[in-house]
Amino acid sequence: MNVLSVAVAITVGVVVLVGYFFPVPVLSGLRVTLVQWAMLLAAVAVFLGVFNLLSVHMEKIRRRQKGAIYGGVLVVSLLVTFLAGLVLGPEHALMRVLFDGVIFPVEASLMAVLAVTLLYAGARLLRHRSDWMAVAFLGTALFLLVTAAPLPGMGEIPILGDLVRPFVTQVLATAGARGILLGVALGTLTTGLRVLIGSDRPYGEK
Fold first, then answer.
1. Mutual angle of helices 2-21 and 173-196, in 10-degree steps
2. How many domains does one find in the chain?
3. What domain range includes position 46?
4. Cα–Cα dist 183/191, whole Å
């Protein structure tokens, strides 16, 4: 069974890879079919994950464990959003109100909390390790937080707000983000090649 799973994984990977580089009609059609199967399996996996999350929190609510109220909020929000999207559709006006009035503000609040948390983590890091990287991280975070919004009664800080901050956010941050994306792409490619040659077998026993 282990040999069969390896053979199926390698065969499917080779067919999809060859279908991308050589536009033969037979290979292209087979590649599209295999990719659609993979998307369907991924959708089923996401559905099972959501169902498992729902069942775990329902059990927590039933047993009245610590934090059950948060589980109740999650369950109610999940069911309301799912049923509204299923009945009304994603383009309905009520769904837009739900997104603009609830989901988007919550996401913005979480991002704000994340920024403050990173700043606090940088301050703690500076206490335990006072090297130039920690100082640069904390200084950059403070600079971006201060210049991200106009100061009360002052507006934007001259030069810093209109020259330095755009350079940091649009040049340095973009370069760092592209470097991270390239690293992720190379890591994904390496993992795919290891699965393709049978070196890694995440679908069965090694």
1. 130
2. 1
3. 1-88
4. 12
* pTM flag (> 0.85): no
Tell me if 98 is assigned to some domain.
no
Please report whether residue 25 resides in a domain.
yes
Report pLDDT digits (tens) over 114-129.
Answer: 878 887 887 787 777 7
Q: What are the respective helix, strand and coil percentages of the chain, to the nearest 5?
A: 80, 0, 15
Residue 25 three-state SS:
helix
125, part of any domain: no
Residues ≥6 apart with Cβ < 8 Å to 143: 160, 164, 165, 168
Which one, of 35, 75, 39, lies nearest residue 55 by Cα? 75
Answer for the pair 85, 95: CB distance below 8 angstroms, yes or no: yes
- 182 in a structural domain: no
